[in-house]
């Protein structure tokens, strides 16, 4: 690729404007509950919660992280703010949102999510009869209920924070090293400095022996993507990695042969 600069997406970690809670939430009471209910709180933050309202729409994805930040992917704009748990309810501060135009049905879903989660008091219950995919049911003051299916976060699954890695992905696959009847991705590792300027790229392609979870490959495009890499066997001398797709940094149409 000819591009040497990359524009990183602005991540919603600076939430100082969204931290004020409504008066119904008393912080000291929430802290007491957190001390008394560590398992429930751990479950809330260990999973990503997914609600699919329609096959025609992207899912609503809810992330309640351990730093008490809430992130909501709506299929259009992303919502972000802060949350606390008082033992029965998830309470949210006023939400901020990215600003992007989307198809009307996507924006309608975003509006629904904003109305449900903004400065809300949500009764919360978790069904863990299926520990692989627990269910989180939230109910607002109007009696509207939404049930989310849990997907364990890789940080919880692999008990580590993971390493952020940038990979250039070739449009062409090669036979997998462990099973040549299967096709695997070819990748090069890319490095950037703090200003987002590309500083290094591997000279040769490497065949990745595992899939990049969440990544949709396109044989007509070359891409540079950001992934999180987790060592699944940290106790062994030879690491084995799992790769989780995060976002696409650059893409261009591959030359036709």
Description:
The chain has 257 residues and is mainly beta. It folds into 2 domains: 16-152, Lipocalin (Beta Barrel), CATH 2.40.128.270; 158-253, no CATH class. Helix content is 15%, strand content 39%. It has helices spanning 27-36, 38-46, 104-117, 154-158, and strands spanning 47-51, 60-64, 69-73, 78-85, 89-92, 96-97, 121-127, 135-139, 145-152, 163-169, 174-175, 183-184, 186-192, 198-201, 206-207, 212-213, 221-231, 241-253. The chain has an 8-stranded antiparallel β-barrel with strand order 1-2-3-4-5-7-8-9. The chain starts with 26 loop residues before the first helix and ends with a strand. Mean pLDDT is 85; it is low at 1-18 and 22-38.
Topology summary:
Elements: H1 27-36, H2 38-46, E1 47-51, E2 60-64, E3 69-73, E4 78-85, E5 89-92, E6 96-97, H3 104-117, E7 121-127, E8 135-139, E9 145-152, H4 154-158, E10 163-169, E11 174-175, E12 183-184, E13 186-192, E14 198-201, E15 206-207, E16 212-213, E17 221-231, E18 241-253
Parallel strand pairs: 16-18
Antiparallel strand pairs: 1-2, 1-9, 2-3, 3-4, 4-5, 4-6, 5-7, 7-8, 8-9, 10-13, 10-17, 11-12, 13-14, 13-15, 17-18
Domain DUF4377: 169-250
Domain DUF306: 59-145
Protein name: DUF4377 domain-containing protein
What does the average pLDDT come to? 85
Instruction: Estimate the helix proportion, in percent.
Output: 10-25%
Mind telling me the C-alpha Rg? 21 Å
Number of helices: 4
Q: What separation lies between the terminal Cα atoms?
A: 17 Å
Dominant shape: globular
Percent strand: 35-45%
Number of domains: 2
Return the structural class.
mainly beta
CATH class of the largest domain: Mainly Beta
Q: Order of strands across the widest beta sheet?
A: 1-2-3-4-5-7-8-9
Report on the biggest sheet: 8 strands, antiparallel, barrel
By oligomeric state, this entry counts as: single chain
CATH level-two architecture of the largest domain? Beta Barrel
From the 3D structure, determine the CATH topology of the largest domain: Lipocalin
User: Total strand count, please?
Assistant: 18
Regions with little confidence, pLDDT below 50 for 5+ residues: 1-18, 22-38
Query: SSE order in H/E notation?
Result: HHEEEEEEHEEEHEEEEEEEEE
């Amino acid at each position: 690729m000819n591009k040497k600069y990359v524009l990183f997406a602005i991540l919603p970690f600076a939430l100082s404007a969204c931290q004020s809670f409504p008066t119904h939430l008393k912080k000291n009471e929430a802290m007491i509950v957190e001390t008394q209910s560590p398992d429930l709180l751990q479950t809330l933050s260990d999973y990503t919660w997914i609600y699919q309202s329609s096959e025609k729409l992207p899912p609503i994805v809810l992330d309640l992280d351990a730093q008490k930040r809430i992130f909501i992917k709506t299929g259009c704009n992303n919502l972000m703010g802060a949350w606390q748990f008082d033992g029965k309810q998830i309470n949210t501060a006023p939400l901020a949102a990215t600003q992007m135009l989307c198809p009307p049905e996507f924006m309608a879903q975003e509006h629904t999510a904003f109305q449900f989660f903004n400065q809300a008091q949500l009764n919360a219950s978790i069904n863990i009869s299926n520990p692989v995919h627990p269910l989180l049911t939230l109910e607002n003051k109007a009696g509207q209920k939404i049930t989310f299916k849990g997907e364990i976060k890789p940080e919880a699954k692999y008990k580590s924070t993971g390493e952020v890695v940038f990979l250039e992905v070739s449009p062409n696959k090669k036979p997998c090293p462990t099973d040549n009847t299967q096709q695997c991705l070819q990748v090069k590792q890319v490095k950037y400095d703090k200003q987002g300027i590309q500083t290094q790229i591997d000279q040769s392609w490497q065949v990745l022996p595992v899939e990049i979870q969440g990544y949709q490959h396109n044989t007509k495009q070359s891409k540079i993507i950001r992934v999180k890499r987790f060592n699944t066997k940290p106790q062994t001398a030879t690491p084995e990695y799992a790769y989780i797709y995060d976002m696409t940094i650059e893409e261009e149409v591959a030359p036709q042969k």
